[in-house]
Every structure is written in structure tokens, then in C-alpha cells.
Design goal:
The protein is an all-alpha fold. It is 66% helix and 0% strand.
């Protein structure tokens, strides 16, 4: 699914340590263009999902190469 183009939104309540929230707020304040905390968190989640998928793809390629070498 195209997460960036998906306009449907579902409210989610999360509990995070206060120190992490302060760190997020600090990062949000450092942005050149104003963004909301929510936007920053969603962007971080999307980046994490993409990174995980890249790692999964790399492992799959590695497994394929190993099986071809055997």
C-alpha cells in the first residue's frame, strides 16, 4: 500500500516516556519548515518501516545467493 498517498487517518493513542517526547519536540523545533509533532512521528514510523523492509529484502537476497552457491 502507498502509505504516503493514503489519506485515511485513524486516531491512535500511544504512551511514551516523557524524555522521548521531549526529544521529539526538540527535533520538531529544529526543522527548517514548521511541522507538527504528529507529522514528525508518522514520518519516523514510515522511515522505520522502509528500513525494516530493506533489511528483509537484503536478507532474502543473501539467502538466495547462499542457496545458489550450495
Amino acid at each position: 500500500a502507498d502509505r504516503n498517498g493514503d489519506k485515511s487517518r485513524v486516531p491512535v493513542t500511544i504512551r511514551i516516556p516523557e524524555a522521548i517526547l521531549k526529544e521529539i519536540d526538540h527535533k520538531v523545533e529544529q526543522e527548517e519548515l514548521p511541522i507538527s509533532r504528529n507529522h514528525w512521528i508518522v514520518e519516523a514510523l514510515v522511515e522505520k518501516l522502509k528500513k525494516n523492509q530493506t533489511e528483509i529484502d537484503a536478507m532474502a537476497r543473501s539467502d538466495l545467493l547462499i542457496s545458489l552457491v550450495k
